[in-house]
Write a structure and sequence with these properties.
33% of the residues lie in helices and 25% in strands. By secondary structure, the chain is of the alpha/beta class. The chain has a single domain, classed as 4-Layer Sandwich (Purple Acid Phosphatase, chain A, domain 2), CATH 3.60.21. Strand 10 and strand 11 form a beta hairpin.
């Protein structure tokens, strides 16, 4: 296993009726990194909608859990950042070994100071936050049958996607915010959310938007202190 660090975001598992192609490609990516990676960062919106009950987990993601667990069994550390579609993860993913992050994080990797966040909330309001991230809504959700809850969740996810238009304007706003973050002794800013794969160098700093796995199938790789963006 090498010391490379990989970053992906915005897979939106569960978004499409037929996800076999996406899932197959994701598992091929996992096979690709299993002998190459030391760490995998999932930077938000891995699921298009996720609501975890106290005693039940969605059976549709069983193979995904199994492949994530296999990466961990092979010595890969997995960090999971909660995005605007990863509604109310409890402790199941932690129980199989993932390290969860509910806010942005600053990490020192390969000698570089890196700011990592999904990016939602940095530039706009998301209606999903109002509907499914407050305690009262969550307590009501627990009373619903899971099948009904996921139908409602899918509708809210569509609202969130309709709120995520004008990508060109939105990534430029994030780019402007990143310039300010760099002033805090940060070498790299890595974000998701916008679904546009973008890598810009700013006076020796790196700004990365990870793209997605619904259209672009992109990932970033940190190797010997250098970050690069790739299509899988």
């Amino acid at each position: 296993m090498s010391d490379k660090i990989f970053f992906i975001s915005d897979l939106h598992l569960g978004k499409d009726r037929d996800e076999k192609k996406k899932i197959k490609k994701l598992f091929s990516f996992f096979d690709y990194i299993v002998s190459r990676a030391s760490i995998l960062y999932i930077v938000g919106d891995f699921f298009d909608f996720y609501f975890e009950y106290r005693t039940q987990i969605p059976k549709m993601y069983y193979e995904v859990y199994r492949h994530l667990s296999n990466l961990i069994d092979n010595g890969i550390e997995i960090h999971y950042f909660i995005g605007n579609h990863d509604y109310w993860l409890r402790d199941f993913l932690e129980s199989i070994g993932l390290i969860m992050h509910r806010t942005s994080e600053k990490a020192t990797l390969h000698g570089k100071r890196i700011y990592i966040a999904h990016g939602n909330g940095m530039i706009s309001f998301d209606p999903g936050d109002l509907l499914l991230r407050n305690r009262f809504a969550i307590s009501l959700f627990y009373l619903l049958h899971p099948d009904l809850a996921y139908k409602i969740g899918s509708y809210v996810s569509r609202l969130s996607r309709s709120n995520s238009q004008k990508k060109d304007i939105r990534w430029k706003k994030l780019y402007s915010i990143a310039k300010k973050i760099f002033e805090d002794n940060i070498d790299m800013v890595i974000l998701g959310h916008i679904h546009e794969p973008i890598h810009k160098r700013i006076d020796g700093h790196d700004f990365i938007l990870l793209g997605d796995w619904t259209e672009h199938f992109t990932y970033a790789m940190l190797n010997n202190g250098r970050i690069s963006l790739h299509k899988f």
